[in-house]
Write a structure and sequence with these properties.
- There is one protein chain.
- The chain is an alpha/beta fold and 386 residues long.
- It has helices spanning 3-24, 41-57, 78-91, 103-116, 147-159, 173-188, 207-216, 227-239, 258-261, 281-294, 300-318, 326-335; strands spanning 28-34, 61-62, 65-73, 96-99, 119-122, 139-141, 164-170, 192-199, 220-224, 248-251, 269-272, 346-347, 353-363, 366-377.
- Residues 40, 101-103, 124-127, 146, 174, 226, 252 line the site of benzoic acid.
Length: 386
């Protein structure tokens, strides 16, 4: 071997070793892609708070590496999502992506994560495809699939002996899939969804649709709205004279919104993987720490952010901070039991939580547990080939 080649080989080896060293030491860059504006802004804040709380509890480090954040306001706008996520991956060189709230934005993130191999942890968006057709070894979710709470509520409403339901939601993946989950269970049990009403995200002009509901006189209404839109929907439902006449069942419609909804939310039933009075020791400690740190009560979104950081922590500990070891990272997370405030959960083969879904009722300013609607519910992971 000539001395030129020997020198080149040594230089290349040094570069490779340097890159590997950089991947397992120094700060770990977390790209937080969440909404800071628009109807889902408060959800983004709660997720970030929850994530940072867990990291702070670990002394600011995960897997031995100090955590640093690069933030993007995704505005819950799928049209801007690919550009936003590419900036985080290509310009900012983040080690891991965390986001987002909106299903359409999360699908764009999943595509980039799949194409580039970047680790992605989804701390809210329920798009079924993220842990379905788009599933990948480097993509994880700490929240739910849109199908899960919908399916659990379909069983609840059928068991109550109600026969006809009108659904109302935003026309995009989260609304469509939530309704699909509801229908899967409700119609299997003999019920009938007689009308599916929707409006484009994030519109809140509900009046004409509420008039249609009043005329249709179903036994019940099933809805998915969240954030600012959910506040307005619950208020408009009451103002239209429907509260107390046609029972309203939902997913997310009363989470993080009770103060703004006030008495109009009282008595609403919903299904979700968290509630405000679980009273298990893990949740009590979490709620106390969250309230102390942020002077706010946590909600389901804060829990999902906290658990996204827990998932990242499990993986990083297993690979000693080396994010290039994707297979070992995934193997550790797949084996783990995540000690969540919602109750411990595991991830399915498609990397979506297998979890209890609670039936909750609004009492005062709380989503209080009534029962477990669905024990250890797993998403069907339609189309996942992993
Ligand atoms: C979604 O777009 O997947 C979503 C947004 C807010 C709450 C729940 C789900």
């Amino acid at each position: 071997m000539t001395s030129f080649f020997r020198t080149t080989l040594i230089a290349a080896a040094a570069l490779t070793a340097g890159a590997a060293f950089a991947q397992s030491t120094g700060k770990i860059k977390v790209g937080l892609m969440l909404p800071a504006t628009g109807t889902y802004a408060a959800l983004g804040v709660a997720i970030e708070n929850g994530f940072k709380l867990f990291v702070a509890e670990q002394g600011g480090k995960l897997g031995g590496r100090e955590v640093e954040y690069v933030k993007v306001d995704d505005e819950s706008d799928p049209a801007k999502a690919t550009d936003n996520v590419n900036k985080l991956v290509k310009r900012d060189n983040v080690d891991v992506l965390v986001g987002s709230v909106h299903s359409g934005v999360a699908m764009a993130m999943a595509k980039v994560a799949k194409d580039t191999g970047t680790l992605l942890i989804v701390p809210n968006a329920g798009a079924d495809a993220v842990t379905g057709a788009m599933c990948a070894p480097n993509i994880f979710r700490s929240s739910f699939s849109n199908w899960q709470p919908g399916y659990a509520m379909g069983e609840v409403v059928a068991k109550k002996g109600l026969k006809t339901v009108v659904t109302i939601t935003w026309k995009y993946a989260a609304g469509d899939e939530s309704v699909r989950g509801f229908k899967d269970a409700f119609e299997k049990a003999g019920g009938k969804v007689t009308k599916e009403l929707s409006l484009p995200f994030p519109n809140v002009e509900f009046q004409a649709l509420l008039t249609e509901i009043a005329a249709a006189k179903p036994d019940a209404v099933y809805t998915f709205f969240s954030g600012g839109g959910a506040v307005k929907f619950v208020k408009d439902y009451a103002a239209a004279g429907l509260k107390g006449k046609i029972p309203l069942y939902g997913a997310f419609v009363t989470d993080g919104t009770l103060e703004a909804q006030g008495a109009d939310a009282e008595g609403i039933f919903s299904t979700l993987h968290y509630a405000d009075n679980l009273n298990n020791p893990r949740d009590k400690a979490f709620r106390l720490a969250y309230a102390k740190t942020y002077k706010l009560q946590p909600d389901v979104f804060a829990v999902q952010g906290y658990d996204a950081a827990q998932i990242l922590g499990v993986g990083l500990v297993a690979v000693k901070g080396d994010t290039s070891k994707k297979a070992e990272f995934a193997a550790a997370v797949e084996k783990a039991k995540i000690d969540s405030p919602r109750g411990a959960f595991t991830l399915s083969k498609a990397h979506n939580p297998v979890q209890d879904i609670y039936l909750r009722k609004v009492v005062g300013m709380e989503n209080q547990v009534v029962s477990i609607a669905s024990k250890s519910l797993a998403d069907p992971a339609r189309g996942c080939k992993m």
